[in-house]
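REQUEST
  id: r-88c1
  op: predict_structure
  target: histidine kinase
  payload:
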Amino acid sequence: MNLLRRLWTALPRPLDPMRSIKIKLGLLAVCNACVGGLMMVWGYGLGFRGRITLPVALLISVLVTQILAHGMTSPLREMTAAARAMARGDYRRRVRATSRDEVGELGRAFNRMAADLAEVEQHRREFVANVSHELRTPITALRAVLENVADGITPATSEVIEGALAQTERLGRLVTQLLDLSRVEAGAVSLDLACFEIGPFLEAAVADAKAAHPDPVFTVRADAGLTVRADRDRLHQVVANLLDNAARHSPPGGAVTVTARPQADALLLQVRDEGPGIPAEERGRVFERFSRGSASQVGSPGGGTGLGLAIARWAVDLHGGQIAVADSPTGCFIRVVLPQPPGGSS
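RESPONSE
  id: r-88c1
  status: 200
  body:
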């Protein structure tokens, strides 16, 4: 039975080159009429009566119809089977879409949809796995500290409490970033555009970064009176995440420089550090969710969640801007371009 099914599936599809299902149906009708007529003529020529030639002609017409219609309807049957498989969670099924008509176009569109769904499902599984790992890491560390304190193994010194507090803060940052990420992906984030001076804005962001990372030396370079039209909160997310990323990868006493300057109806923001930098082959992935460069390992104390740069990219995209890792002889150099209305930056 399986062999017959495979042979039937592998039958040629002679009508595939036709560009329209209507033409195929017309050719099918013509073929049936021709086959029936030829069988009748051939039967009468050999002396067979109509009661014999007519059933034979009908039988052969049905057989020809089955063979020709097989290539027309098999993509629909394959799509039905693939849809049922996807309902069970199997996104690997594809349709053999070799025809050039509307059914073939539907089959190719179905294959693209199946590939997109498979990619979304893969991202969902990776997202759940990464979130589970990121949540488990600080929770496990915090639980170990509290258990040691409760059992009297570790005294409740200020250093121990500070370590537990650091894990709690890390967990809070992760939850906040996940909420920001979900709002952005759901399209629930709108922009509240306003004009403000960029220099004091960057100074305030750097002050917050200094409180969390006292070791690096932060420097702000912005022309006095330079203004930007943007959403202050969303832009603060961009700058804060870039500063956090730069500070975490900078050596003790390393310089972190943030620069703002106008550029042809746009504002150019640049953040540079003296860390190990990002290899060229990894620059296209660092703005993806839970992506880390080779210098940042999962679960490391100085490592981030892999969400900061993704949130920065989406915030920049909301403004219609661009964010990218630029070439730099040393450290990491990230450039943000925010479009501005004519005369908006001065």
